[in-house]
Structure formats: structure tokens, C-alpha cells
Amino acid sequence: MSTTKPGTVYWFTGLSGAGKTTISRLFWTRLRERRAALEHTSNGVVFLDGDILREVYGDDLGHTTADRRRVAMRNSRVCRMLSEQGVDVVIATISMFHDCRDWNRQNLTHYREIYLRVPIDVLHRRDQKGLYSRALRGEQADVLGVNAIPEEPLAPDLVIDNDGSITPDAVVDLCVAALLSDALS
After folding, report:
1. Please, which residues bridge with residue 92 across strands?
2. Nearest Cα to 114, choosing from 35, 8, 5?
3. Among 43-57, 62-76, 79-93, 129-143, which is the least confidently predicted range?
4. Lower CB count within 10 Å: N or C terminus of the chain?
5. Kind and range of the H or E element at 25?
6. Is 7 part of any domain?
7. DSSP state at residue 158
């Protein structure tokens, strides 16, 4: 029987263009800095990005609702595997499925859910990947917020309205204040 204290999973979710990668990567950097200052090590803190994880999994699934759900559950299981080894995980993932987040709450000992909520018109303006414009032209199916309905989080630990009115660093300040105040004590 293992005596390793499970790590915390910080699950950053939101639609494409919500700022998940930018904000969660900054949060990960701050978490590592705090660990280094308090514990003299920043080991045991990893960053995972949903787009990169798809590559790691072999890009074997598409973007249908069923495929996205399978990818979300893969992400959850990877997070569980790492957290059970005492690793803190910061993950940026769309994963807009109630059953996936419910599974996380039931199977991840220390699970923190952060929802980056952004108005759809702001997402359309950001559209770095051209996803929304393709969907609006009818060239892309199953785009959450356009031609597929997202299952927005019902009870996240933290909701950030990331409409661009504050900087990513200020958003991370809010996350740190809400999520790390007693996490390292």
C-alpha cells in the first residue's frame, strides 16, 4: 500500500480560444515557483495541454462528440495516474462533458476545476485556429459554441470571465489567490 500523498489536479476548462493554455501555463509556472520557495524543489508539478495530449495519444480520434468524450476520459485517466504518484497536474483541456468532470470528482483525490468562461463573440474574434470561422461557413461540424452545444461546468471551483478585460497575469493572480492560499501550507 502506497503512502504517497496524492497530487492535486488543476483542470482548466473552457471553449477553444478561452485562454486555457496561456493561463494554465502561467499558473503552472507560479505553482512551480511556490513549490521551489517552500519545499526547495519544483519537481512533482507537470503541465499538460489537450492539443499536445492528442498528439501523444497518436491523433487516432477525430472531433466528433464521441471522439472528444473519449479523449477527455483519456486525459482524466492520465491525470489520475500522475496524481496517484504524488504529482500535481495542471491541465488545459476543453473536455466539456458533465460525465467526465463527475468522474474526475469521484476518482481524483484532490481535484480543482477552473472554468474560463468567454462570450462566444469574443471567441469568434480570437479564433486563432480558424475553427469558428470554418464552422460558421459550414465547413466544420461539431464545433462547440457554434454547431454543437457545450456542457458547461455546473459546479467548478472557480469561474473566471476571461473576456479580455484583464491580463492573463491578472487572471492567474485570481487563480493563485483562490486555489493556492492553503495548498502549500
Report:
1. 12, 49
2. 8
3. 129-143
4. N
5. helix 20-39
6. no
7. E
Quick count: other Cβ atoms within 10 Å of Cβ 73?
16
Domain membership flag for residue 85: yes
Structural domain contains residue 3:
no
Alpha helices (runs of H) in 40-153, residue ranges in sequence order: 50-56, 65-83, 98-107, 120-126, 131-136
CATH number at residue 126: 3.40.50.300
How many domains in the chain? 1
- Percent of the chain whose pLDDT exceeds 70: 95
- Is 14:94 a contact under the CB 8 Å cutoff? yes
Which residue shows C-alpha cell 504517497? 4
pLDDT tens digits, 46-78 = 999 998 998 898 878 878 888 989 999 999 999
Grid cell 457545450 — which residue?
Answer: 150
Does the residue 111 lie in any domain? yes
Q: Which residues are catalytic?
A: 95
Does the model's pTM come out above 0.85? yes
- Residue 176: all three cell numbers together: 493563485
The residue type of 124 is: H
